[in-house]
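pipeline/complex-builder :: batch 7 item 3
reading input block
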Amino acid sequence: MADRPREFALIERCFAPLAAASDEALALRDDAALLKVGRRHDLVVTTDALVAGVHFLADETPEVIAARALRVNLSDLAAMGAEPKAYLLALALPTSIDDPWLSRFAAQLARDQATYSIGLVGGDTVSTPGPLTVCITAVGKVASGCAVTRSGAKLGDRIFVSGTIGDATLGLAALTGRLTVEAEADRVALIGRLRWPEPRIALGRRLAGVAHAMIDVSDGLVADACHICEQAGVGADIRSAVVPVSAAGRAALAVDPSWLPRMLTGGDDYELLFTAPNAAGERIRELAGSAGVCVTEIGLVAREPGVRVLDESGEPIRLERSGFVHF
Ligand code: ADP
Ligand code: MG
């Protein structure tokens, strides 16, 4: 996680050539693969591995680990516009994991299965001398030709994001003692957003065939906007003043506004970031309403490459981690 550019370079060098023969791999540059299996539907397949101490704090509860592991995968399905169908679970267990822990882990998966209408269909269980590792592969389906990839952004498209941005970054900072949150309710809300991501499946499905490009925000709003722009050979202008921030996030910013750049570049929001033509604005508001999710227009797809985050006077904000996203 800490060294994403190195990870992306490795994938380009070693693994992308293995996928070069198939359009279905989307060049290993999208949220999921898109398998053509019939005339009516395409299968959408994605996998994510979570390692204790890297992708979640090692002392998190089995419930949090189970929910995060499944939901980050469902978020990738949502980002393609897909409906979840089934998942596989591969576990590498250190000896410290006991039966009661596994029962609680499974019970949380059962609750999430009911919430997201998805079932377990396979997996693998091994022991490891290393940290707990949970790898989930999720499979979804989407009407043929309607999946939303990262590469469809067009000049002049509006840029939208669901929900609120930066809560998980603040939640992690609160958990690790780097941020003091005065109101307990705000602290609970921010940490909850880190621990319990909410994959935007209902919204993603409605955007299939409507949005031009879509990604889920896992690396951070700016980095994920860069992923969309790189794929389409365009740029983006994002207005920081309209990026949606939760009440708890606003309270943190009121105490220390310097958190804003970190909220825009930190990860784990698991919101949907998408582009759509100007004319689709009204339709998107309707779809967001029927999905029960807030959607905010935050910027425009532009000709000049790179992602610029502009302050209220239209000046670009300097982002500490801009090197991380190649711009
Ligand atoms: P996301 O954040 O949406 O889960 P990632 O940033 O983890 O996506 O991965 C980016 C792309 O690289 C995805 O298309 C993923 O399938 C691909 N990828 C990552 N690691 C590998 C690997 N070891 N082999 C093949 N493809 C990979
Ligand atoms: Mg993704």
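note: The radius of gyration is 19 Å.
queue -> next item
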